[in-house]
Fold this protein.
Amino acid sequence: MVEPAFESVDQPDSGLARPKPRRPRPGIRKYADDRSRRTPVLFIGADQRNGLELRDLWAHRDIFYVLAWRDIKVRYKQTALGAIWALLQPLLTMIVFTLLFGRLAGVPSDGKPYAIFSYAGLLPWNFFVAAVTTGSNTLLNSTNLITKIYFPRLLVPTAAVAASLVDLAIASLLLLVIMPIYGVGFHARLLMFIPLVGLTAMIASAVGIFTSALNVKYRDIRHALPFILQIWMFLTPVIYPVSFLPARWRWVLGMNPLSGIIEGFRAAIFNVPFDWNRLAVSTAITMVLLVASCYSFRRMEQDFADVI
Amino acid sequence: MQPVIRVKGLSKRYRIGERRNASLRETLTETIKVPLRLLKSQNHEDNLAYIWALRDVNFEVHAGEVLGLVGSNGAGKSTVLKVLSRITRPTAGQAELHGRVRSLLEVGTGFHPELTGRENVFLNGAILGMRRSEIVRKFDEIVSFAEIEKFLDTPVKHYSSGMYVRLAFAVAAFLEPEILLVDEVLAVGDARFWQKSTDKMRELNSRGMTIVLVTHNMWLIQTVCTRGILLQSGHVVVEGRPQVVIEGYRRLAETQSSTERFTSTEDWNTKGEIRSLQLSPVGKWVSEREAASDSGIVLSFTAHVPTCPRVRAYVRVATPDNFVLFTAYSDVTEVPAEHQLAFKATITRLMLRGGDYVIWVGVCSDREQEEMLAQAFLPLQVRETGGSHPEAGVFWNRADWAVHRVGSSTPDSRP
């Protein structure tokens, strides 16, 4: 039995307080006893929490939905074109890329129509950039939440990634319209889109989670990230095929999980066999990055309210 | 009975100063400098860069209690709530909370201006910890409590501040935790809504909810709280019945030396300075309704105004939550070459009811914008023994009555 550090001066003295009848507890126990099974017990201490606390994440899942829903709702408010922007952006980029790289520069596209070829690269890449960019800024934009209420902060950058999925879905619909125009048929391999989108969302989450946490303490991220993403794009086969590189340099692209993912998207669209080895490597790297970024986020998150 | 909240040795240290928002480059250069600094043994300034917002705080709260946390600014009241609501991690010590905890450190947390009232109810509700089904079930009640039925589908950016606060508070009022942590959120909204929300808090408590409340408002401590804790510089100094804590708070204000008794706000406005401020009679002041004679207050203060040739002084009486009751201005005065002015303001009839007030004095420029040059404030406590039911009003006043019996042939007047 742990004694309180002070003597309780008095008991509630007014008629306002009508305490619930409670069975007295034998003493403080570290873990849930009979009564605590019904009443959750919260322990607050000074020591660092290192676990991922997935149960806590699950308990707060409503916040995840509501934050993603808010981002989607607000994104095209007060714009004349609304969600059409989600179509226009990839479409115009595709047209410019096709003219510039496909026609003028003569970048090869493995014998496929360059428009579809580049669109297949832009689709996951644009999603990745949008998700990472919004994700990395979300914590700073949610300062009022972070300093005023508790919930697992991991929900903030991941909700931003989830909200970006809507734009990807809209842009994917456009792909289904362009494909027949260039004589690319529909087939069962297109179903691989779903796991590939999932994988892209995971790598975007990994990068978004890590950069958002870093952004809280070091505002440098805000300036560095667009630059890093630009370089990253050149190291990703978005506008060129992997075969464009000399064979001895292709391993560099192999280290880049987005490279395997984009190749996967292309295979799904053009009905070509998948390079399963490369996809497996991309998946493994993505998983490692995601877990590592979640753990480092958890470590940094406990000081967010004091630092932000 | 076992407490539902048990706080043991809770301490929180904050780092202060510029390094809070260090950039990556600074961190890198600091890291390089560390060995150099060790050689020069100049790390004394590092010790100064920390403050203890809480130092070894211990208390317990039992089921069904309403605990009020009071103390002057920076005493650590809000830090206690931030630690208990898991927003920030304590530096040392621990706390245990038995039951579902919800905290309300601000009304309308997460409200988005572009979204409608309806959408914000769902957004805010979820952020405060309500399940979607729970919000759907209570939606109509929330809306009618907030009295905004007509504007439900209007973006909240078009709301008046009153409507905004009402909606935000309404969502929070329908939380059903076992432990509620509230920080000063009642200091918003108009008087009628304020009454409504304190009633709601009493109702929640009568249904068994345990509440920890941070407030500056002594009236709230007295009427809603069952127990209070007075914090000073991160320590618990008084604990006990509301009345004991309120007395402690007043003693604390009175025992501080006369130079510290008033708070000058010149640090954020260097255009002038209030150098001294005295209020007489000192201490408790009896409402003139009950005093033997007309006993007004006298405020004497000196101001140093180097930046402005002609100024006006003012006295302003406000409630502790900054609701201004009145402002009395002086005539325009030339500032002499020494830039020093002494003012004496006599207010013969305050007409204030019993309670706590804040008196502001200050000087402002004589230009169109009335730029504030220096300001300082003092607490004022008005004592009134008679029943103080809030419906009677903010002020008391007298009227000379004339009553006529209608229908009677001879009018009967009473002075």
